[in-house]
Structures are given as structure tokens and as C-alpha cells.
């Protein structure tokens, strides 16, 4: 197996070199990191033997932020500086946060800011930075327990995350100094952990109810290929919402009046905590004692039984069943076609959830892998493959985009360019004509969502294509191209087609951070304040250069003679040598430019090798079937 | 250079160009091709190879999506014979009347007391009509003396109408959950 690998395109030339890779489940409530060691995946624990890292960060005035259990312990006494459930805020604007109907105990800065920031003792902090702190903590854990630097990670995101939320998650990883090999959808990761473990074949529903997000995916497992047929969900639905309803139930009964002022933040935080504990107690008990410290100092008691709890949380479960119906429809199947339903996420521990999911899908629910760690395990397996530690032939994940991508057209309507549940990567282009005489610019508004009106969809980006030569209305033709990569991330470009004049614009959706913003955040963050910024940038570019050189050298060794003439080989070798020299220097920009130049120069070689792949794929079949 | 990107969708999967299609075979070939070209195979390759592999994988996805769907597949075959969707063609009068009737039935179902039952009945009827039209479409496109383009174009438009109304019914059904 290892010998065969050497000539495979894109594989390391040294099959024995094991690269350190990890899978990270960046959760709303808890986060985990897992890796594959000696062929079997395992969750990594901290010094105290704990695998779950609470996704909570506490910022302090003159000290490093606290992450995890220490932060949780401080949450009640220091609610404004202790940020929990950042995942529910990531990639959202301030106004969107308000529509979540949450009582957030935080103070936000400028309401008009693109990215909302929470005012903390350590300055304003965005959800991206909070997530980066959590990722840094997991990176430290992984690197100390694996004894080396991570080559790359796979980070999981809810399948229903939109483009802005995915981009923001990737930005957080970059802030934490992690190389993201792939953003992987959580239900798909869970399916990997289950499927590979049990060698299952057939169609499965993955019902993933976490702390703050809900996903439902239908997957078809066949000979190691995990094909997502459809996915749906709600990126603001989860166990937190159950806790909130339970807290409201307690609040209705306890003899206290809330005025909504800041001093009650501690009380509210405590109430949420008690609500969660009560919910957890009722997974095994029939009835639980509720005890809270009233704002006045005295204690107050009540009882909550399981039947009442079920009726309190039923609306949350109802809300999750609507997307369940939609995924079946989108996959073109019914409950009878399913071979099982897999339960993922801590909130599926609630017996009522399991009961109602089994009833809805009319099949048995699997929950034998720990629902808290199954996603991280799946991510670790994928990371191991992407790092090149095991043959990619073992498994292939074919995922989809959860929400349609489109453009605003006349009258505030949306024209869908890529429909939801399209298998990624995917690219589509659409042509539009100018609608005014002498029109020299066209504004392009990219949106995501299923509704017909722009105002009901998520606005991802706006940009203008300028430089269209003046023409009669209808004769200027603008082609807008959408590309979604294997991470589910979108890039859009536009081009005027009729004349020789080209005006290309490639945009990154506006919720993603620009490189300059990431740099600024790095400068701002305490973690990196002592570090020389230049050194960090230089290190990043060197890693990039090494990767590029290594990949190209191994490709040249394998196929250089077959696909390139001597002159082409010499040119590439010279460019590699020049990058090698620059890499030893200290000019980060020069290295970056040299990498880009080398990439451009090697493009025809890459295309020829890829094309050759067709012939080897053909070799496995009857050549006549394919024709020429 | 003759690459996968230049091949017809049928050639990509090694299938004869015909409307009738072996769905199982298509899916099997699709998986085989993605095993080869999917960007996951190039995670540690150069940026260029990643980009090229994404382009191939996207093209294979597009070809698969088109061929497995009865309406998109028919559109693709028609386009290869120079019939584009944009050209306005005459809808059959009988079908226009049928459309109006279906719309009226949908509205009646939406406002009736036992709305859900009425919707299910209507949806079942449309599914049967849809299956009939698909069979007719196959006959028109795979006719031994060459495809009957005009008739096929008309049938595809009718199927597209059925799809839209079916979608409206499904959305209305969701409201009953």
C-alpha cells in the first residue's frame, strides 16, 4: 500500500513520515480535540484527564484570558467578562444577534459595527477572538500531548452554518495559528466515526442537537464513500434553548421581579446554570429539586418532574422536526428508506429527544459512540487522511452546501445560482445584461438563503463591476461566477464578456475578515503582543514556501519527465531554487510573491498531471465505454 | 488537449447519450471519479494542484447533478441539439387549461377544512402525471429515428411546471406540522 502511494499525485514522497494532525470540535458548550494514534482515533485530555474543554473564555484586565473550567467557575461572579456560547454569535452582526431572542449578559460596543464586539475588562472582543482563545488552548493541549507542532487540523462546523459563519470560524483558526486543512460538517464527521467503526452501508439520518446548533443530514454510505444527500438545520437551536425555557419556567414561579438592569446578570447566569443542571439530572431521575439564590440573598426551592420537563422542551424538539421533514424530501426518500438514525450532540442525551426522534424517523436510534466526542473523532480520522498518514482511498466525504446562493436581481428578488444541497466543490456562472444605455458599472449583491426576497436572505457581499464600455442597454453582458470550495466557502467573480475589456473582481464575503483585520487582531491580542509580528508573518510564509516546494519537488520526481520538456523542467527547477534562496532570507513579502510566481509557473504541469489521472482512471474500465 | 473538462457529461461517465439512464451505474462511476479527483486527495499538494482538482471535482459534480435529474438531463440533451430553455415556445392549450385547473385545486385545498388531506390527494395526482410525462419524454428523446425535439421541449416545460406546483404543495404541507 505504501509503495503504491509514492507515485500518487499530491502525496508525500516519504510514506513513513507521520504528520501530526488533529480534529477539533469547536462546540457551543464544550470543545474537544482528537487525533489518530497508531491507527486508532482518540480524544486528547488535559493535565487533569478531562476531555471536554468548556467553550468559555474570561477576559481579565492585566492577565491572560482564562479558558475552560476556570472561566466557568468565574462566570457567575464576573458575567460581563466571561463569554460563553461564542459559537452562537460568530459570523453574525449585532442586529442579527438581537433576533436570536437571547438575554445576553454582555455589553456590546458600537451597534453599527460589522463584527459585534463584547466590552470586557481586556478591551472589546469579538466572537472570532473568543473562539481563537479556545482553539489556542486545544492547540496547546494537542501539541503537548503529541510532542510536536501540528501540521494541520480539521475543524468541524454545523452543517447549517452559512458562508459568513464558516469564514469567521476559519479566521478564528488563523488567529490561533492553526492551519485548517478542512472545515468539516459536524453530522458528516459523526457519520465517519460511526460508519468506519461499524462498516455500515446504507442511508442514515444524523440528528445532531448540540448546545446551540441543530443539524440534520441524510447520508448514503457505500464502500467508504460518505455521500451527503441533503442537510438542513437551525444554527440557533439547541440545548441552550431548553435551558432558557426551563429558566423561564422557574422565573415564572419564583417570587421575584426582574427590572432588567445590569446587576441581575449574575442572577440570570445562575438561573441558566440551575436550569441546565436540572435538565441533566432529569435524564436519569423522574424528578429533581430546584434551588436558587434569590437576588435578595435568601434561597428558594421547587420541584420539576420529568413529565413537566418534557412539556417545557417539546417546542424545541418540534422546531427540530421541521428540518427533518425537509431533508427527507430533499433527499427524495421517506423514513422507510432509512437504515437508522444516529444521535449526536450532548442534547440528544435528553430521553424525550431520543423518544421523539425515533418516533419521527420510525427507526432505531444509534447513540453508542459518546455523543460528546463522536464529532471530534470523525474530524480526527479526516485530518489523518488529509495529512497523508493513510491512503485517501480508505474514505471519501462528499458534502453539500446547506443554503442556496444567489444574486439580487430587479425588484429586490433573488436569483438562485447554486441551489442548496449541491455537492461541493461546485462552480456556476450566470450571465446578466446591462439594462441602461451607456451603463458602465453593475452592482452585484450576493445573498444566501431560500427565500425569494433579498431582505429575507442573508446578505454576504456587495461589490461593483466597473469599467464596462458604454453600450446600448442589453448589449453589455456580465458573467458572474460562483465557486464554492470543499470547505463550503464561496468566492465570486464578475467579468464583462462582449468587449476585450475585462474587469475581474474576486471578493471574499464581507463577514470574513480581511488579511489586514486579522493582522490587526493579532497585534491587539495579548497572546501575541510579545511576539515580533514580522517574525510571525515570516514564519507563516516560510511554512507556505516549504509546502509548495515539497509538493512540487515530489510531483517533479514522479512525473516531471513524463509531462514536461527539458526547458519547462529547467524553468521550474530554477524557480524552486530561487524560492529556496528567498526562504532563507527575511523578506516575508518577497517569499509570498515568489510562491505565487512558482504556483503560476507550475499551473500547466498540474493541469497535465490531473489530466493524466483520467487515463489511469480509465485503465480500470473498458476503454471502449468511455470513447474519445 | 482533450481533458475531462471538454468531454460531454455522458462521456465523463462512460454512458451512451440517451435519456434512459442506468442510475446505479452513473452513481458508481461518479464515486470512482471523485475518489480520483476530489480535493481531499490533494490536501498536501501545491495550491495549483488543489485548484485544478477543485475545478475537476466541481465539473464532475455538475455533470452528475445534471444527468441524475430527469428535467436537467432532458434540458442538457436538448441544449446539445440547439434547443435552449430561453426560447419562448408555445405551450399546448390543453396543458395551459390543465395548469389553471391545478392552480385552482391547490387554492381550494389551501382554503378547505381538511386542507392536509386535500393537499396529499393533489400531490399524489401530480406525481402520477409527472411519471406519465417522464415516460413520454423518454420516448420523445430516445426515439429510434432521432429525438423529437419540439415535443420533448414541451414536455420538459410541463414537467418544470409540475415541479413548481409540487414544491408549493410541499411548502403548504409543512405549515401543517
Can you give a write-up of this model?
The complex is a heterodimer of chains A (628) and B (177). Chain A is built from 17 helices and 27 strands. Residues 1-16 and 614-628 of chain A have low confidence and may be disordered. Chain A has 628 residues and is of the alpha+beta class. Chain A is globular. In chain A, strand 26 (490-496) and strand 27 form a beta hairpin. In chain A, the strands form 7 sheets. In chain A, strands 1, 2, 3, 4, 10 and 11 form a 6-stranded mixed beta sheet that branches. Chain A has a 6-stranded mixed beta sheet with strand order 18-17-12-13-14-19. Chain B is mainly α. Chain B folds into 2 domains: 4-68, DnaJ domain (Helix Hairpins); 93-174, Monooxygenase. Chain B has helices spanning 9-12, 23-37, 47-68, 70-80, 93-111, 115-141, 149-174. Classes of the chains: A alpha+beta (628), B mainly alpha (177).
Beta-sheet strand percentage of chain A? 15-25%
Percent helix among the residues of chain B? over 70%
Give the fraction of residues assigned to helices of chain A: 25-40%
CATH class of the largest domain in chain B: Mainly Alpha
Q: What is the averaged pLDDT score of chain A?
A: 84
